Amino acid sequence: MMKPTRTHVRSLCIAAMAALALPMSAEAAVILAVDFGGGTGNVQSGFQGFANPAEGGVSATQTYSGITVTIDGGTNTSGTGSAGFLNSRDRPHAPPNSGTYTNYSLLRDRIVSTGGTQGVMLTISGLAPNTDYVLQVWGFDARAEVAGQNVGAKPGTNILWDNTGGSDYELGQYTMTAGQLPTDNNSFSITSTITTDINGTIVVRSYNPTSGTRIDGTGIMNGFMLSNIPEPSVSLLAVAGASLVLSRRRRLA
Q1: Are residues 41 and 18 in the same domain?
Q2: How far apart are CA 181 and CA 101, in angstroms?
Q3: For residues 214 and 144, what is the distance between their CA atoms, to the nearest angstrom?
Q4: Integer Cα distance of 78 and 25 in angstroms
Q5: Is-contact 163 76, C-beta < 8 A?
Q6: Gap between the Cα atoms of 158 and 174, Å rounded
Q7: Fewest C-beta in 10 Å: which of 93, 129, 208, 233?
Q8: Within this chain, do residues 173 and 238 fall inside the same structural domain, yes or no?
């Protein structure tokens, strides 16, 4: 068998480097994106609307192509904590689109839970069981309109918990300052990988420990985006293949 030359090895290295430069051809596919609080109007582009819950109700449900979405202010799956009431409201004075931030329609309306101890509960069912998904949840409330100002956030902290297994696991949190403006479409959101239970269900809750005169209610959600876990890209597979070829040729040399 012909012994590999330096030219052959260099060609393979160049091929591997070129593969690394290829764009990601297999990205996370969005399964469902839902805009809460807007009803049939003010729905963010790329999202689907969610019928506003009755004022003072504790739960609202809507189904999208076999995936059922329920939002409520009730207890968590372990049955602890007191139930809250849902409230939806439009905030037309939310920060307008600017630069890479284009989520004005998403942030201008929201659903909150008032009077409970668990915040806003989000249940997504009809998914594949025991499967990882990427979930991004937005939670923002604008402060009162101020003439001549690019109105930003109310101050407060928002925490997202995974309650799928019945016990809370913190997925992330962020703290807003008074008048804070979004810098891009990921502002005021938490993104995490979550595994469904044996029934193909995800349960998360948004909780605001600084409620009262700050973020409305004990929990807040503007909407969410659910995606598949991305598959390995063609570029990574190409690099792996080139590495295997190089390794085999070295052994045969």
Answers
A1: no
A2: 10
A3: 11
A4: 41
A5: yes
A6: 6
A7: 129
A8: no
User: Hey, is 42 helix, strand or coil?
Assistant: coil
Residue entry with tokens 């700050």:
214
| Identity of residue 107 | L
Whether residues 169 and 252 fall in one domain? no
pLDDT tens for the chain, 253 residues long, are 445 555 444 444 444 444 444 444 356 799 999 999 766 678 999 999 998 877 778 899 999 999 999 999 877 777 777 778 898 888 889 999 999 999 999 999 999 888 888 899 999 999 999 999 999 999 999 988 877 777 899 988 999 999 998 888 999 999 999 899 999 999 999 999 999 999 999 999 999 886 555 677 789 999 999 999 976 654 444 444 544 444 455 455 5
Which tokens hold the place of 167?
């016990």
pTM reported for the whole predicted model: 0.80
What is the residue-wise DSSP string for 65-90? TTEEEEEESS--TT--S---EEEEEE
Domain tally, the chain: 2
Residue 79 structural domain: 28-229
